Amino acid sequence: MSTTATLASLTDSDRMADPNWWRQAAVYQIYPRSFSDSNGDGLGDIKGITAKVPYLKELGIDAVWLSPFYPSALADGGYDVDDYRNVDPRLGTLEDFDEMAAALHQAGIKLIVDIVPNHSSNRHEWFQEALKSPKGSAARDRYIFRDGRGENGELPPSDWDSVFGGPAWERVTEPDGAPGQWYMHIFAKEQPDLNWANREIRDDFLKTLRFWSDRGVDGFRIDVAHALTKDMAEPLPSKAQLQTKYNTGVDGFVDGSHPYWDRDEVHEIYAEWRQLFNEYNPPRTAVAEAWVHPDRRARYASPEGLGQAFNFDLLQADFDAEQFRTIITKNLGEASASGASSTWVFSNHDVVRHATRYGLPLAEAADQAEIMAGQAGKKWLLDGGKLEDVDVELGLRRARAASLLMFALPGSAYLYQGEELGLQEVGDIADSERQDPTFFRNKGVDVGRDGCRVPLPWENNGSSFGFGEATAHLPQPEWFGGFAVAAQDGVEGSTLELYRAALALRSQLQAAEELEWIPTADSDVLHFVRPGGWHTVTNFGTEPVELPAGTVVVSSGPLDLGDGSTGGKLPGATTAWIVA
Ligand code: TEU
């Protein structure tokens, strides 16, 4: 595709065949168990997604990314996979999957699936075999088993913590009933880390990637892509020696010397995956979830590797003009240097929804350490997570302004289900209803991520607000109906209609992945223009500012347009797209 062709000049079928389809795609993340329940068991399912393809088409997204839908005991919401080449029977069958893929493709929508290569679930047949097999066996070598320290091996091999809290090692009982070895789990104990030094693991994942690629999957989102390769040479360093940078928003060290985060050898794996991806036409794509130092992100995004990597910089920023400008400039530069396109994301299934984050009391938002770790909102959650403590109006206003700015940026925009409704986080879920292992492993310190995973409201009222026939698997609050699709569909000024309008217009932006900053008189205002596209102006402040001359094609909130065309004002926390 030439860089001067507008994206809109391509037909659906051109776009589907275009090897560069991913570069500026609007990708909609579906958390399958919370999207739409077709069979009334309280869990969202594959047929539920198929039924909503017309909704997705009307929204105007280019691709769907499905969080895990594989068989799983849901110890970590499906990121504990029992079988990588199947569908959870509660969510459907492989035939249902094929039907969904066909319906999406028919609608011109690409399909990305989540791959979880760092760990399997403890119910995976490999782990079950490892438990039954002796120390030193081939079955144990698929995972990371070690003898414990102490006289009788009663101490874990190291003092490392799991990301979800508590130790990163769990002791097993040997087949003869004796207390035995320990296995490593960076996440929950139901998520044993796989041993990527073992060729069998590498080959099996190639088989998995081929399995889904052959079924028509267009791309992959790679879970914790920065953790696969490990240096487990003994003695293992202590956590004090490692001075882990976890909780500063960065995993690993800039020189790649951390024993499990972001080691250089991980890229050998992705180079092999890339060869497989390139056997397909168009080549399969991949995006790395890698919370690494920004200087090391480009390695994951290289065309010889996964091709694209998430940058969570905007997700971790305040609603602040200077922070946004710095992040945007830096990431566009990095992406073009690596040959990838930029990625932008404000919300996903791991963080407090941005419409809520932006409405939190200032004291909370000012905690930079929390924000940098993607933890903004955790304190509010711990304090009870009451919606009345959130400035919902301000949060939504800022979220809409931020999203409209994002849709004008070069690169891929990743959306999370429900953000197109301006949905707020559900903060006050009863302890007895919580599901996230973070909650159980950190009792009283972190309530976890369930609040952004509450099933979507489709109808204003009725059983589970149209999610399905049964009560939803996570409780939906009374106020959910106000955010429902039905409450916003066709309603002028609704967040849903804003997203639809913006996404429809976005497809007209020129393919060139560039922008030019236009100087502004006010430091709270950002203004940029895309080649051949329109001007995007965001007022991050509170006072209205003059709008540049031109015709407003869409704005994230009401404007004061003065005489109707020129001399209008852009209120605080508002973005406008203007054709000069
Ligand atoms: O999240 C990865 C994750 O939790 C870490 O990358 C963490 O955010 C980082 O270390 C912070 O510094 C993915 C999934 O998105 C999440 O839902 C899963 O729970 C997790 O992996 C385990 O599979």
Write up what this structure looks like.
This protein is an alpha/beta fold. It folds into 3 domains: 7-116 and 311-504, Glycosidases (TIM Barrel, Alpha-Beta Barrel), CATH 3.20.20.80; 125-184, Oligo-1,6-glucosidase, domain 2, CATH 3.90.400.10; 515-579, Golgi alpha-mannosidase II (Immunoglobulin-like, Sandwich). It has 18 helices and 18 strands. The strands form 4 sheets. The chain has an 8-stranded parallel sheet. A hairpin with a 5-residue loop joins strand 13 (525-529) and strand 14. 1-O-alpha-D-glucopyranosyl-D-fructose (TEU) is lined by residues 76, 79, 116, 163, 187, 223-224, 246, 251, 289, 291, 349-350.
Produce the secondary structure layout.
Elements lengths: L11 H6 L8 E5 L15 H6 L1 H7 L3 E4 L27 H13 L3 E6 L9 H8 L12 E2 L22 E5 L5 E6 L14 H16 L4 E4 L16 H4 L23 H12 L7 E4 L5 H8 L5 E3 L11 H18 L4 E3 L8 H4 L4 H4 L2 H5 L5 H5 L9 H16 L4 E5 L20 H5 L43 H4 L6 H12 L9 E2 L7 E5 L5 E5 L5 E2 L4 E5 L13 E2 L3 E6 L1
Parallel strand pairs: 1-2, 1-11, 2-3, 3-7, 7-8, 8-9, 10-11
Antiparallel strand pairs: 4-6, 5-6, 12-13, 13-14, 14-18, 15-17, 16-18
Helix pairs in contact: 6-8, 9-10, 15-18
This protein binds 1-O-alpha-D-glucopyranosyl-D-fructose.
Write the CATH fold name of the largest domain. TIM Barrel
Number of strands: 18
Bound ligands: 1-O-alpha-D-glucopyranosyl-D-fructose
Question: What distance lies between the first and last C-alpha atoms, to the nearest angstrom?
Answer: 27 Å
Largest sheet: 8 strands, parallel
Approximate helicity band: 25-40%
Task: Give the quaternary arrangement of the chains.
Answer: single chain
CATH superfamily of the largest domain: Glycosidases
Beta fraction of the residues?
5-15%
Order of strands in the sheet with most strands: 9-8-7-3-2-1-11-10
Approximate shape: globular
Mean pLDDT: 93
The figure for the number of domains is 3
- Cα-atom radius of gyration: 24 Å
Low-confidence runs: 1-5
CATH hierarchy, class of the largest domain: Alpha Beta
Note the total helix count.
18
